[in-house]
Amino acid sequence: xxxxxxxxxxxxxxxxxxxxxxxxxxxxxxxxxxxxxxxxxxxxxxxxxxxxxxxxxxxxxxxxxxxxxxxxxxxxxxxxxxxxxxxxxxxxxxxxxxxxxxxxxxxxxxxxxxxxxxxxxxxxxxxxxxxxxxxxxxxxxxxxxxxxxxxxxxxxxxxxxxxxxxxxxxxxxxxxxxxxxxxxxxxxxxxxxxxxxxxxxxxxxxxxxxxxxxxxxxxxxxxxxxxxxxxxxxxxxxxxxxxxxxxxxxxxxxxxxxxxxxxxxxxxxxxxxxxxxxxxxxxxxxxxxxxxxxxxxxxxxxxxxxxxxxxxxxxxxxxxxxxxx
Length: 325
Prior knowledge:
By secondary structure, the chain is an alpha/beta fold. The chain has helices at 42-49, 119-141, 159-170, 185-191, 200-203, 223-232, 255-260, 274-287, 290-295, 305-313, and strands spanning 2-10, 13-21, 31-40, 65-73, 83-87, 103-105, 110-112, 151-153, 175-179, 195-198, 214-219, 233-241, 263-266, 297-301, 320-324. It contains 10 helices and 15 strands.
């Protein structure tokens, strides 16, 4: 038996709570793991609060991220005692996840825990920070250099935004952070932001082309914010889009693309191939200051995950929530 956070939905409604489960109920997989830590991402928040139809199989153990130890394995790349990281792959949506003392996963989904990180630090990064690094890699692949100009990061006090600000600043970029939490300006400046703007400057409908400002953008917000960021991106710039906190629509035009040569790079973290994941985690180990990482973290126990998810969806969370299993 093991303790797990279980989501249920039936004629009686939606329920989320701790329960004891037998290992025989775990889904198929070639690796049995013991998560030491998990985390709460935006998608986890949607699932735990039933705000969106993220969960596609009921009942569901949520938790798209996990870090801990392999207990049993029939996969050639994994042995009992190995330290692992898991991100994405539909876990917490169609396959039971890591907000539990046990999880059965596929070995092909796992990445070796870098020596630079403890399991707790890996979950302080989680899918949000790993996605942020995928965004940084996309900017670099476009040829972006620190002397190109200012880089905008939207949703900057969130998980993706916080890590993106810290990494980009450490790499020498001049980062401008957009946030609705202007009281958190000092937090963003400690992460390395050179300037902070109110998200209201980007959140309303704007002109198809606006004054050129950003050499590049990391956007976790979508909707009008992304449309305005594109309209303000300088000639030949690149925008990495990875989120939809404001909305999944893109109410813009083709003008930035055909008149300024702007590139819109879509960032998917869920199904990214192993090689890209390993590159992202290796770069996080090199380019993310562990001291700054700790300043982003709030830790909660497994029994506090539902309440923390409610605060996350209410916009009351800064940085990253780590769940101790």
